[in-house]
Amino acid sequence: MRRIIRRREIVLDELRYEGEVVSPGTYPVRPAADWLVNADATEGPAAVLLGAADEPEMLAPRLHRLGWIVVEFAKSGDGRGFSQARILRQRYGYAGELRARGALGRDQLFFLARCGFDAFDLDSREDLEAALSAFDSFSVAYQRASDAVVHVHERSPGA
Amino acid sequence: MYRYDQIDQTLVNERVAQFRDQTSRFLAGSLSEDEFRPLRLRNGLYIQRFAPMLRVSIPYGMLSSTQLRMLAHIARTYDRGYGHFTTRQNIQYNWPKLEQVPDILADLAGVEMHAIQTSGNCIRNITADHLAGVAPDEIEDPRPYCEIIRQWATLHPEFSYLPRKFKIAVTASSGDRAASEVHDVGVRLKRDSQGVLGFEILAGGGLGRTPIIGKLIREWLPQADLLAYLEAILRVYNRYGRRDNIYKARIKILVRALGAAEFTREVEQEFAASAGFAPRLSEAQLERMRGFFRPPPYESLPDREIDGASDAAFQAWYRYNTRRHKISGYRIVYVSLKKHGEAPGDATAAQMEALAQLADQYSFGMIRATHDQNLVLADVPQRALREVWQQLERLGLATANIGTLTDMICCPGLDFCSLANAGSIEIARQIHARFDDLDYLYELGHLEIKMSGCMNACGHHHIGHIGILGVDKHGQEWYQITIGGSAAAPAALGEVIGPAVAKEAVADTIEKLLEVYVRERQGEEERFLDTVRRLGVEPFRERVYETHHSAA
């Protein structure tokens, strides 16, 4: 069973990706563009996958239908997902789960959390228990961001 | 100068702890080299040819004497007794031990310094005019805005995994001593017709493999919007900059591919769309930051004639290594790190300590690093110039060559850097040896030679009046020469004069270029650069290759 971090807790993953079996209590994740084609035909909160090159803007009119947005970090070092998160949270006010998934470890957790991610499906080699401490890497920050999980004393530059 | 409060201090302390943890995980084998690399890089730690290299940040080149003493202490304790000042106003240590780096960072944190974002694909050290606050030609002191940008860029959660590195320069003078036109973003202070201070913004400049002059994308930006606008630029770049090819990943390639007009439209659209959450600077915030950069307590002094008219050495030093200060009775003093026999930009621990002492005694305890690899004592009373000169002379830091041919910019090259194709320090020695007659240098006037050991262009060769680029030809070190480049406004990229020349022929080649200049020059005031601009490359090319062929 895949384990993820959600809001500083290690929990079992309820999402199922392409090729995985969807059983009761689990939910399929569909590519965002595919889901949008028939978004209004489905019932209940949906889960979509956003690739690094996908435009988060396309989800804006349907955000109320989404329970999960999974942002894929396919390649380590590709930071596009950080911008996608801030756009979804701060520009469009998305309030559902925002999950980072892929080539990520504890060393990215703090920045991810500051950008608005609240769930983390890390590289399978990462030690999740040890990773939890990364949310407290810093107790202060210079930027106002979208902190859901970390607690920092924010001070804007010059203040 | 900016002083840390509890928040700034906590941040650097926590960064030290984080890096200590990352280093110990790497040494214990739980982080692979591939995983550790991006982590150590964003803390300025490279693995070089012989040893790690640690780059320490000197924000916009400003150092207190306490900080300089710490840099000396680090050189002596953890390195081989010296440091290398870089073209980004930083300092590099070439011989630290990996396992000691967390201790070095802890020492730095003790004097409000760090190595955060001195490398890696993130926003790098903010550079500025090294004469900020003292130059007679500036509109306003740019340093409060540098510090505002520095803080915003530090550990920015969204922009820490950019397609490539990102360099911002700030200038407030028309002379542009910060080379703002060859940065990813150039911020230029300006005043509108009512005298209100704001900025103009350039984007997409850069050197490296594809040198490009930056484009003006915003003619007027109110102060309050500085960070909001930078955030818009960075977000467009983070989303759309190329990530498939490291050589095409800088913002200049994106600006060129989209065209400046379309890039500007994208940025403006992002700027408007994020108005609801983008950072805005209040007047109180701006005023607080300006408070850190108030002028030091200058005495009220008249300008004075320099004494010692009979002393030619002092006269030459005064003429070449000092500059007019905006306050009467004071003078700006350059500390030359370009002595014959020394690697350009290097300073020993003893020199740094002595300079810290000089700064305390004569210049309000402050030292500046310049992007052309010298240091500056910015506020020396004119009455103390002779004493300062004598002390610098004893330290080997008074070579009267600032702005002349031997005031070369030079990267560490093949001697240290694992990227280099060719040596640069040796070439600097060769040039120094050939042009050791100061009177001849003075006759040649203002001349900037800039040299890089590879096309990554750390030595800014494209914007040298004479640029020298080390290239590898079948395992041998060759050098491509360009002329006509300029960092100062209007910035220009040099033109290649012809095929690369052999290592032993570099000084000969420069001599030939200068022969043409001396022959063609129209009057004392015409600089080498002006002659090249007036005549083009052709007469220089002819002279260099004609002799080359007949000799061969």
Describe this structure in words.
The complex is a heterodimer of chains A (159) and B (552). Chain A is an alpha/beta fold and 159 residues long. Chain A has one domain: TIM Barrel (Alpha-Beta Barrel). In chain A, 19% of the residues lie in helices and 26% in strands. Chain A has helices at residues 32-37, 80-91, 106-114, 128-131, and strands spanning 3-6, 9-12, 15-16, 27-31, 46-50, 66-73, 97-102, 119-121, 140-141, 153-154. Chain A has an eight-stranded mixed beta sheet with strand order 2-1-8-7-6-5-4-3. In chain A, strands 9-10 form a two-stranded parallel ribbon. Chain A starts with a strand and ends in a 5-residue tail after the last strand. The model of chain A has no long low-confidence stretch (mean pLDDT 94). Chain B is α+β, with helices and mostly antiparallel strands and 552 residues long. Chain B is 36% helix and 17% strand. Chain B has helices at residues 6-27, 33-41, 65-78, 101-109, 143-153, 226-240, 251-258, 260-273, 283-291, 312-321, 349-362, 385-395, 425-434, 438-444, 506-520, 528-535, 538-551; strands at 45-47, 52-56, 62-64, 82-85, 91-93, 127-128, 168-171, 185-191, 197-203, 215-222, 322-324, 330-335, 346-348, 366-369, 375-381, 409-410, 449-452, 466-473, 476-483, 495-496, 501-502. The longest helix of chain B is centred in the first third of the chain and has 22 residues, at 6-27. Chain B starts with 5 loop residues before the first helix and ends with a helix. The mean pLDDT of chain B is 94. The A-B interface holds A 75-80, 82-83, 86, 90-91, 105, 107-108, 110-112, 114-115, 137-145, 153, 155-159 and B 7, 10-11, 14-15, 18, 22, 35, 38-39, 121, 144, 147-152, 154-162, 227, 235, 238-239, 243, 273-274, 276-277, 279, 281-282, 284-286, 288-289.
